[in-house]
Structures are given as structure tokens and as C-alpha cells.
């Protein structure tokens, strides 16, 4: 998403920026609204964070990088928050321990919302009463996109936390109806080899890890027309996929053995058949829907079992551009649709955008010529370019004005609590 607005006057531009800021901040609070104070305190594993922490940290970002530097005479809401809600910026001090965020019972949620309001009022003052510079604009754009990332994390984290409750409570009682007609049959899309432009240097906002734009040569390849479904993954399970070591990378096989894993995260075998925990509570598994909450190791093992492979991130981007997937953005299953789960692909849909983040076989590494900023903001992406895998495409929880084809998400290969799925590729 970008907050630039054509040929508008500076005053009109600043008001557009403020309107975008307020809309995104309001969306975060809307997503938290169904949760109780007790829900917001939960931290179910070290990788996840409490909802309350997300609400505070996103405010910390605006306060730390913008208000403290650019609003004259700005006074911090609470100096202790500088430590409590610092995520990983070591250049700003020692962050509070991530696995212990659930221990922060105080400040309470009322104080956190007061903090958000305090920051919002100060941002409005900055935009209305003080000179607006390109540096402020760039940081606001980064902060807004940062908050949208945390909107997605807020939902994935609370899903994991609520799934630990034996009552299987729902985040949302509004269960979308499953489509059973016109479901897309998996076919293969042939992508011609050649040089493809990868990444971006465009005027619209993008994270630093998406550039510099460069040419990448790719041989001819094929890529699946949709994501792998629950029914297709169930065939892998029933064929002993979790018991065949030859299908698995060594680290993945070790994890499967260690945790005696036999199915994806959130799947449960019951007397009434397979069910899965969703943001709508415990639901029967729909065979047509894309299988999700898989680790990279599971995705790779399935691809091997199917006689295929995962695409590289360059193949994924080349295919998405070749097939003009931005034309399908309006119909993509993204956060604003509020389905809160992936949907079965209908005829004509390829699911390159929305539904699920798609594992690629590519290591998360810098593009040639990448250089992280030397200030604290430079810690945003660059220092994580080690031991992680790239995912592409966004999910059903990604805001529609936040996703783009060049977007590079990244997770460790064992992680599965994000809305991750599989698209197959072949030579």
C-alpha cells in the first residue's frame, strides 16, 4: 500500500495520509474488538504474541520512529514502554524477552488503548501543524504497512491461543458458506523460459527486501493452477506420508519423529471424521478448500510424494506476472472479505493472491545490490536473511492494499501457525 496521491496539493496530501493512517489504526482495533481482556493477555507459544502486545507495539513504532524525532516537545506516554514494546531493535536498547510477552499483565488493556489514542492524537497534530517532509512520509508509510503486518499476526496468534482451549471457542461466529459448485480442477500452467523482471524499484511503497529490481533467467517450467486441497493432502496422509522417511528432508523428518506428527496443525481426528480448528471454531474439513497451516517441511514432503516440487520464489513471481494476477486482486480472498479462512478455488481463479501464503523452495536471501539502512529502521528485514524460507502471495488475513506480487514474506521452515499452503511446480 502507498499513501501517495497523484497531483494533490501538500495540504490535501497530508489529509490523505492522515485518513489512511486513521483507517488502518481503526481496522486493528476492529479486529481486536471480539476479544476479551483475558483473550488479549494470552501467549500460547514463544513465536506468538498477545493481542495486547500487538496493540501496544504498533503504537510504539509510530512513537519511537516518528513522534519522538519529528514532533517538537513530544513527551513519551510512558518511558517504560520503550523497553516493554520494543520487538527486536537492538540499536534502540535491549528488547523485552519475546517468549515472556504474556507475562506483561500490566499495563492493562485500558491503558494500552489510552496509549493508542495518545499516539493517534500526536500523529494528527504532527500532520496538521508541522512541516511535512519526505522523511516523515516514508516513515509513516512504513509504520502503516508495519501495522497491517501486525493485523495479520494478531489473528494468527489469537487463533493459536484459542485453539489451546478444550472448548474450541470461536473468534467469529459468522461462518462463511462453503462453495461446492464450479470448483476448479487442478491443471498445469506452462510458463515459457527467459529473462523475467523480479522485485521492484517502483514509486509505490515496498519493503526494502523487495528490491533492487533485477533480471532473472528461468528455464521453461510448469506451475499448478491452484493450491493443493484438503482432500489431496488427505491422500498423502492415508498413503503413509508421515511415515515414509524418504519423502522428507532430514530436519523435517527429525521433527516429525520428535513430535510424532501425523497431520497438519489444527486437524483433529474425531468420531465424526476429520475436523479442524478455525477462527470460526471447530469445523468439519472441507475437501475442496486449500490445505493450510503447514510447515515448509510438510509442503516439501507432499510435493515429493506427488512427484513434483515447490516453485522457487522467482518462478512464483514470474508466473504471477505472466498470468497478470493483479487483475484478480478485487476478487481475491483477502482480509476485507472477512471469510477468515481460505476458500476453494472456483473456475477461473488461480489463488496467486489471497487465501494462503505459499511456500517456495527459495532461501530468504538478499537480492544482488541490497543494502539495509544504517539507522534503526535497517533492522526491519535485513538481519533476518538467514535460515528462513520465502513465502509469496498473501493470505485470507492479508489486507488488500498491503499485498503485491513482489512481496517477500519469510518464516522458519518448521513454523506452521501462519496461514501457509502449497502450490506445486514442475520442470
Outline of the structure:
By secondary structure, the protein is of the alpha+beta class.
Descriptive account of the structure:
By secondary structure, this protein is of the alpha+beta class. It folds into two domains: 10-163, Four Helix Bundle (Hemerythrin (Met), subunit A) (Up-down Bundle); 188-426, paralog of FGE (formylglycine-generating enzyme) (Alpha-Beta Complex), CATH 3.90.1580.10. The protein is 33% helix and 12% strand. The protein is built from ten helices and twelve strands. It has helices spanning 10-32, 37-41, 51-70, 81-84, 109-129, 134-163, 230-238, 250-258, 296-305, 313-322; strands at 188-191, 194-198, 214-218, 221-224, 267-270, 273-278, 281-284, 357-363, 389-392, 409-411, 420-421, 425-426. A four-stranded mixed sheet has the order 10-9-8-11. Helix 1 packs parallel to helix 6 (134-163), helix 3 runs parallel beside helix 5 (109-129) and helix 3 (51-70) packs antiparallel against helix 6 (134-163). The longest helix is centred in the middle third of the chain and has 30 residues, at 134-163.
Order of helices and strands: HHHHHHEEEEHHEEEHHEEEEE
The separation of the N and C termini measures 34 Å
Number of discrete helical segments? 10
**Rg calc:** 22 Å
Structural class: alpha+beta
The unreliable regions are: 1-5
Q: Can you give the mean pLDDT?
A: 94
